[in-house]
Amino acid sequence: MTYDKNASAPIDWTAPEMQYLEAEDYKLPPADPVLLASANRMLSDRLERVAHVLRGCGLPALANISGAEDLQMATAALSGAYQMALAESIALKAMNGAVRSFSTKHQGHQATVIAVSIHRPSENPIFGEGVTHVTVADDGAGAFLRLCQFDESQKPGEVVIDIDELDLIRDIGRKMIEELPGEKEWSDV
Fold it and tell me: Cβ(80)–Cβ(59) under 8 Å?
């Protein structure tokens, strides 16, 4: 029974006029083991197909996943990795555009970018954790990149870079060296 303060009488949900189905339709039939086994097999097959797709996505953490594991978390990991890759791609395009447009001449002077800070958006670009400073240097034999990190958790002289960060360092470093006056373009050899 439900008591509604606006109703003149309580609502009886078991009353015949409140029933949409026949009384026997509200009773569960006995479990059919063959039907349950068939449904479980179909569900297991579908989960295995989803796991197969996740294994092929390229994320190392999902390389050995099976349909017996929590695929919701794995799918969330894949979605997050995709969003990070998309954001990194957009940031790289913007950074390449910024570097391209920054090398300008003004009243007899030229501005050339020779240093960049590679960092996560949440970190301070000067002294944040995991920040890598990429600087173009030249000791007379041609331009090269110098990498510096000031992370207290690392040994002095140690540089720790993940593979995605390495691609960004390579691309932005190549762009900075190409824009140095007198430097030839890097080859992809």
Answer: no
